[in-house]
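Review box. Two proteins, two foldings.
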Amino acid sequence: MSSSATPHVAVIGLGSMGYGMATSLRRAGLAVTGCDVSADAVARFVADGGKGAKTPAEAARDADIVVSVVVNAAQTEAILFGKEGAAETLAKDAVFISSATMDPDIARRLAKQLEATGRHYLDAPISGGAQRAAQGELTILASGSAAAFAKARPALDAMAAKLYELGDAAGQGAAFKMINQLLAGVHIAAASEAIAFAAKQGLDIRKVYEVITASAGNSWMFENRMPHVLDGDYTPRSAVEIFVKDLGIIQDMARSARFPVPVSAAALQMFLMTAAAGMGRDDDASVARMYAQVTGTKLPGAK
């Protein structure tokens, strides 16, 4: 436990989401140390007035709260239990907040492993994008023990506009996030199919965007992602590979549960095809580009 009344927070993973979360925590008056595999990201955080650490173990040493903002379960496990991992140095009463989207069974296993050492684990996937992360207005889907919630509260208050407390054990937060990801992936694939099909029909796709966003066919993803297609700008806000991963997890979960998910299975194939065409690290709206390439359809920004 830190000696002062101000909780010390370590944020591990200073990507587009983690950096915004770290700045929100600092703005709330918490003492924040940032850690990332990119030395440049850490240097930027230090230049903004935060502290920096080279390893998760170093970052966690004085922390009451560790917020892990990495891509997947494997990276989360490495941050906790890998070489120079946070579990080596985390104080006995500290809490580890896991924000990565992962299979609920893995969240349960990591929680059990950490809790066996006397620390707390909060399963807390996030939604809302980089802008909301920077504004401290994320939606957090959390589950864990009452003690984990109590310990994590100062950080959760600083990072979230909406905090859902979804159960007293890890895994529930992860399961809720996977339902969100099923819908998000399907909606992006459907929006991309529609905008590319509209272009093939020779329609003015800016006018299509205007009409659809005022009509029943609209979705949050259509409204949020299709401007990237209109602008021909596929700088990754969220990459294609994220949905290859997340829709893949959904297929695994569904197969285990003997539950058919044909619509999300079709969406996964669209993301896989887009990744196979060399756009895996580009914005997830690139599914529209994949449709355009396959059908010889012209979209804005196409060479």
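Next protein.
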Amino acid sequence: MEHNGLLVVISGPAGAGKGTVVGELIKDDNVEVSISATTRAPRGTEKDGVEYHFLTREQFQQMIKQDGFLEYAEYVGNYYGSPKKQAELWMAQGKDVILEIEVQGCKKIKENNPECISIFIMPPSMEVLEHRLRKRATDSEESILKRLSRAREEISLARDYDYIIVNDGLSECIADVKTVLKAEKLRADRFDVSEMLS
């Protein structure tokens, strides 16, 4: 039986490890990650079309007018959004599409795509999260404090997600996410039993 792929939202505060988790998931040939568009400047060795599609504010606003996003939001002064066309194409091919987005975006995705699966990657504690952010050494002190403040807001909304997975050990966290995806594919409402009976 052929099925459309799953639409999967993975969120969590900066430093929770969601990017690393997503990096592991896409090693599976049947999983694709939606590359977000953003108006923020590239960091370090980031390349356009790899980590993000880097757009000007004008380009981003034009795509909004053309209904080109599954969702979009403004975060710490920059736009972020999930382009629609490629995600829909992959799902029609039976591939699971991962959207690594923040909580505002998840809410919008769920409004328009109620069948999507949402997973919140939770840090073990705020202390661990702060340590991880400082260890990255990619942000200014002001940016780190903003991210920690934002993390508290995001964590307060984690109960709006279908699943919460604490990243206290990366391999276990990844295994838990894979278990969720496997279970979702086995849901009875994804099967047309009449095909078996005909």
